[in-house]
Specification:
This protein is mainly α. It has a single domain (40-263), classed as MetI-like fold (Orthogonal Bundle). 72% of the residues lie in helices and 0% in strands. The chain is built from ten helices and no strands. Helix 9 runs antiparallel to helix 10. The radius of gyration is 27 Å and the shape is flat. The chain starts with 26 loop residues before the first helix and ends in a 5-residue tail after the last helix.
Length: 268
């Protein structure tokens, strides 16, 4: 009797392959706890500051300077300064960094980076004062100064990230029939995303710290509390502005880190 192949059950030869390792128990919980650790710490710091202020016997000047309305207004002004300047840095520095890595424009990268490095050596307060003397004071002038201060890390890291892409991957993309633009958006930029996001994180922290100096150009922000506390020798006002600035810097860093975690291409 002839046995057909359909009647014989196929048996694998050789040793069985390794079984997939199940996820460690509790790993999602640890990940969530890790993400919530920073917000919990910052909430604890804010609660400690609130308890400290309510435990002090504030005089009339301190009550006028650090009441809820004033603190909220200064905090919103600071966030607006940081958010707008960071958005402009991203809109300007990343496209410029991409442009300076293209074959026809690479010659301009060295002198432009040299100029940017020279500008980076100027202290933030110097940039603010220079703009105040030449073009005036106010919110918009402070935003321009913050862009000038924090644009270099994003520009430089964009170029470094794109230049670090393996040329073999670019050649492979071209060999598959992709245009130069398609290779840029589908190969080069995704591989450079981690480096670019790290530079944006640096730029945000720079802007949070430098925005405190905007108070000297009548742009508001938490620096106004710090400057007032120093000018009138009120430690409570100075401490409030300083602690809230540090909290805002850490919160911004946490948010950008969270965005970096989810925007990073899978597998990198």
């Amino acid at each position: 009797m002839t046995v057909t192949g359909a009647e014989v059950a196929w048996q694998p030869t050789g040793p069985p392959g390794p079984r997939p390792t199940p996820p460690a128990p509790g790993r999602p919980t640890r990940r969530i706890l890790g993400l919530l650790a920073t917000p919990a710490l910052l909430a604890l710091v804010c609660a400690a500051l609130w308890a400290y202020l309510h435990g002090q016997n504030l005089d009339a000047i301190e009550r006028r300077s650090i009441n809820r309305e004033v603190i909220t207004q200064r905090l919103i002004e600071h966030i607006e300064l940081v958010a707008l300047s960071t958005a402009l840095v991203i809109a300007i520095a990343i496209p410029l960094g991409v442009l300076l890595t293209r074959p026809g424009v690479r010659w301009a990268a060295t002198p432009l980076l040299g100029l940017a490095n020279a500008g980076q050596a100027v202290p933030s307060i110097g940039v603010l004062v220079l703009l105040a003397v030449t073009v005036g004071i106010g919110f918009q002038k402070a935003v321009i100064a913050l862009v000038l201060v924090s644009a270099l890390p994003v520009l430089r890291n964009t170029m470094i990230g794109l230049q670090g892409v393996d040329p073999a991957l670019i050649d492979a993309g071209r060999g598959m029939g992709l245009t130069r633009t398609a290779v840029l958006f589908r190969v080069e930029l995704p591989l450079a995303v981690p480096v670019i996001l790290a530079s944006i994180r640096i730029a945000v922290i720079l802007n949070v710290g430098s925005a405190t100096l905007a108070a000297f150009t009548n742009a508001g922000g938490l620096g106004d509390l710090i400057n007032t506390g120093i000018a009138i020798n009120r430690t409570t006002i100075l401490l409030t502005g300083s602690v809230l600035t540090a909290v805002l810097a850490l919160a911004s860093d946490w948010l950008v880190g969270l965005a970096e975690r989810y925007l990073r291409p899978r597998g990198l």
